[in-house]
Design brief:
The chain has about 200 residues and is α+β, with helices and mostly antiparallel strands. The protein is built from seven helices and six strands; from the N terminus they run αααααββββββαα. Strands 1, 2, 3, 4, 5 and 6 form a six-stranded antiparallel beta sheet that branches.
């Protein structure tokens, strides 16, 4: 199963937005949140020497900057309500672990490269704040990545990530749905696949 591996640098996800932004209000807080998160991620990479040490620091970081539970529920789609409480609990736990592992793998691609990220002016779009960035890495063409942030300046969280025009939460949900259809809508099959992925 390849779904979670596609999550570029990890952020992605879901619903649960609180529309408390006054129209026309400055959205600089969203850009500042993305800059701050990027700096913290860079610090984690620079100050840890082993994958296990990074994993221990990345887990709480990801849980703080990404609305992971909402991401997970969105990606499971209509199957979320069909899952038993135990299946929901197992799925959420494994989803958190799989996301952290995917971010670790992705960060490894950037470890020995000079990376520059330009943060552009945020825009209100589709009930959320879109913060476009241009990521430049030595030896590769620039990539446009848009971070989608909820509407709560007091507790900003990443709710989706759009890489070169492709929404990663929608891609993952499509992959999960296709997997479940192939496996007779058996949620335990998806949970087992996630378990193997994080093993």
């Amino acid at each position: 199963m390849t779904a979670t591996r596609r999550w570029l640098l990890g952020g992605i996800a879901a619903a649960g937005m609180r529309p408390n932004i006054v129209l026309g209000e400055s959205l600089e807080w969203a850009a500042a949140f993305i800059r701050r998160s990027g700096e913290e991620l860079t610090s984690i990479m620079a100050n840890t020497e082993t994958a296990e040490a990074r994993r221990r620091l990345l887990q709480p970081f990801i849980d703080r900057v990404v609305d992971v539970d909402a991401v997970a529920r969105f990606c499971l789609g209509r199957y979320w309500k069909q899952a038993t409480p135990i299946e929901q609990q197992d799925y959420l736990r494994l989803f958190h672990a799989a996301l952290t592992k995917a971010v670790l793998v992705r960060l490894g691609d950037y470890e020995h490269n000079e990376v520059r990220v330009d943060v552009e002016r945020p825009e209100m779009r589709d009930g959320s704040v879109h913060v476009a960035t241009m990521v430049e890495r030595t030896g590769t063409p620039p990539a446009r990545v848009t971070w989608v942030v909820n509407l709560d300046p007091n507790n900003p969280r990443i709710i989706d990530l759009i890489a070169e025009g492709v929404s990663l939460r929608i891609t993952v949900r499509s992959d999960y749905n296709a997997f479940l259809v192939r496996h007779g809508n058996n949620i335990e099959a998806l949970i087992d696949a996630l378990r193997q992925q994080v093993a």
